[in-house]
Amino acid sequence: MSPSASDAGPRFAVVGNPENRRVALFADAVRAAGLPAPRVVAWSDVIRARGADFDADEIVRIDSPGENPEVDRMLRGAQDPTRVEGSARWYARFTAAVGGLRGGVRLDDPEDLSVLFDKRLCHGVLDAAGVPVPASPTSGPRGIAVRGWDDVRGVMRGHRMSRLFVKPAHGSSASGVLAVESGGGRIRATTSVERAADGSLYNSLRVRRYEREQDIAAVVDALAPDGLHLERWLPKASQDGRAADLRVVVVAGRATHAVVRTSRSPLTNLHLGARRGDLRAARQAVEAAGADWSDVLGVCERAAACFPRTLCVGVDLLPAVGWRGAAVGEVNAFGDLLPRLTGLPGSGAEGLDTYGAQVAAVLRDRNDRGTPHA
Questions:
Q1: Could you point out which of 34, 96, 133, 155 has its C-alpha 20 to 30 Å from the C-alpha of 54?
Q2: 3-state SS of 59-99?
Q3: Which residue(s) pair with 331 in the sheet?
Q4: So what's the pLDDT on residue 270?
Q5: What number is the average pLDDT over the span 243-255?
């Protein structure tokens, strides 16, 4: 823990891309709390210098390095930011850059980040802690390596997974994810991956289907060198005839914000055409099924508790058909970008966005213990 902050109040710093809206929203929240704007340390500078130094009393937030072509080239080595490949290189360079940050009081733990950005490790940690997750043969101490499509086919047969998700182990924002289903002698994959004539893969904002096994195999084989994670595709609840899940933000151990995401495809990411659903209707559906809404949020809090040294995570919660039970699909280190969404009733974050809730949590912790959350 650091020494007490100055009488002027705590000083924040953020590692991020200075032009990014995430940095701007966090800075707005800091200023709204009556504090000086945070010092912004650019990811590009951190990577070039192989680190950065912070004063002992600076409260350091690590934000996403995404949405910046130059930083993406530095991390992935790809000239085109829409390329899918290179996630293993991105992971190695990102974790090395985080490891080069020195001093300060961290709101994001480096070891937690290394787990959160490896879906195999994250799934294994959640499963070991008793958090409900989809079955996966690639996580935990007995996890298998996936070298290509032949291995995926072997898992589908050996584990009786006629429907599964194939995910790049270090991917984010549904990059490279395929929802694969087979039956009746046919197989198809739903994905945002676009395969070019030369075999290279690109992210697209249009969700598409591949219905020839040779095309699916080519995509999976191209992704496999970066590492793949496989999960059973669980049937999900629906809202207004669309598949539904929830993104729940947990701050300092408490679920503070939630949004329902609905889609006509298996991919519910909002940037892929999904849309926000009705949270009140989701809560009513949970209660009509005989469950307690606080228990649903409690699943997300249990997932976040696996990363106690990180202030905030975004949990993707997969409600079961009929809203009876739920499983955790993913835990996201940078899952708090929900602009204009204010806190849940009774969460302690009413009237605050996700960034305001984090600043408030730091200030509460400082007042309670004389030191910020870390």
A1: 34
A2: EEEECCCCCCHHHHHHHHCCCCCCECCCHHHHHHHHHHHHH
A3: 315
A4: 87
A5: 98
Judge contact between 359 and 30, C-beta under 8 A.
yes
Q: Which of 327, 331, 302 is nearest to 112 (CA)?
A: 331
CB 190 within 8 Å of CB 266: yes
DSSP letter assigned to residue 236: B
pLDDT band of 8, cuts 50, 70, 90:
low
pLDDT of residue 87: 96
Rg of the chain over all Cα atoms, to the nearest angstrom:
21
What is the DSSP-derived secondary structure letter of residue 272?
A: G
Q: How far apart are CA 246 and CA 315, in angstroms?
A: 8
- Read off the tokens for 22: 């995430």
Rounded to an integer, what distance in angstroms lies between the CA atom of residue 141 and that of residue 133? 16
Cross-strand bridge partners of residue 57 = none
Kindly state the tokens that stand for 77: 């080595």
Tell me how crowded residue 93 is: count the other CB atoms within 10 A of its CB: 17
Euclidean distance between CA atoms 85 and 344, whole angstroms: 38
**CA dihedral (155, 159, 164, 169) positive or negative:** negative
